[in-house]
Design brief:
By secondary structure, the protein is α+β, with helices and mostly antiparallel strands. It contains 12 helices and 9 strands. It has a 3-stranded antiparallel sheet with strand order 7-9-8.
């Protein structure tokens, strides 16, 4: 039995414990070229002074490869996770998540630890938004086909694999071709069904066969996929696309609906 005196001490200690705020977990960030303490503080939603204090820094000088302790939540990867889905789960920009993890953007595996940055709009997101508004607009206030977060991630990864170095409208058009196929009775009726579909024993999209589909999508490619899902279609209803260096006569014989960058979109 606890004496009344000990009980009072226990209650007082418990009260103090409950008053202590919950801090984010400690994580490690590796300084990259072009970093500054200010940029890192913004990435993790802290202050320069806090970083300097937790790392025993007397000045502002840091160097690439240097390990810094930062205050950040750490997420353990689960089966089926992608960097995009983790970013969406925590409401942080994908490019910020990738940077916070020192450029990690390819395959991740269950059990891997991912550092979560602070939420907020990054400079690259702002540039993407500006570019998007200048080049294309959504055609509907609602999606033109149903989709899940995994569908969006898959579609955006295809866009990156097929049109990473092409103009923004070319990216939207690649996604629109998939959307057009989902809506057509000639192809599978889901995004994953269309992208992984085999006709005559062959995959319809080269990145599925060569593995490029597994690279994570960039923020711009995600936005392009979203625009297509909401009705934007620079391909003008196309069901196929190819690079203008292609020599396939069957593709070139089909009616051309659009040419954007090096991409040709046909029906």
């Amino acid at each position: 039995m606890i004496s009344s005196k000990k009980l009072k001490v226990f209650i007082a200690a418990l009260s103090l414990t409950l008053m202590i705020p919950n801090f984010a977990s400690a994580a490690t960030y590796t300084v990259q070229s072009g970093d500054s303490l200010y940029k890192i503080s913004k990435l993790f939603g802290t202050t320069v002074d806090a970083i300097k204090k937790s790392n025993g820094l007397s000045g502002d000088t840091i160097y690439p490869g240097q390990k810094l302790n930062v205050s950040s939540e750490v997420y353990t990867v689960k089966s089926g996770d992608t960097m995009y889905l983790i970013a969406k789960k925590y409401g942080v920009p994908l490019d910020s998540l990738i940077k916070a993890n020192n450029g990690l953007s390819d395959m991740i595996y269950p059990g891997q630890k991912i550092v979560i940055p602070a939420a907020g709009t990054t400079a690259s997101q702002q540039a993407t938004t500006t570019q998007k508004s200048d080049t294309t607009s959504r055609g509907s206030s609602r999606p033109v086909i149903s989709y899940t977060a995994s569908d969006l991630d898959l579609l955006a990864r295809l866009v990156r694999a097929e049109a990473e170095n092409q103009p923004y409208n070319a990216k939207v058009a690649v996604a629109a071709v998939v959307v057009n196929r989902v809506k057509s009775s000639e192809f599978a009726n889901t995004i994953s069904g269309v992208i992984y579909e085999k006709i005559g024993g062959y995959y319809q999209f080269t990145p599925v066969e060569n593995g490029w589909i597994n690279r994570p999508a960039t923020q711009e490619c995600i936005k392009a996929a979203e625009d297509a899902l909401y009705g934007a279609d620079p391909s003008n209803g196309a069901l196929f696309y190819f690079d203008d260096s292609a020599t396939n006569k069957w593709l070139w014989s089909k009616p051309i609906r659009a040419r954007i960058g090096n991409m040709v979109y046909v029906y």
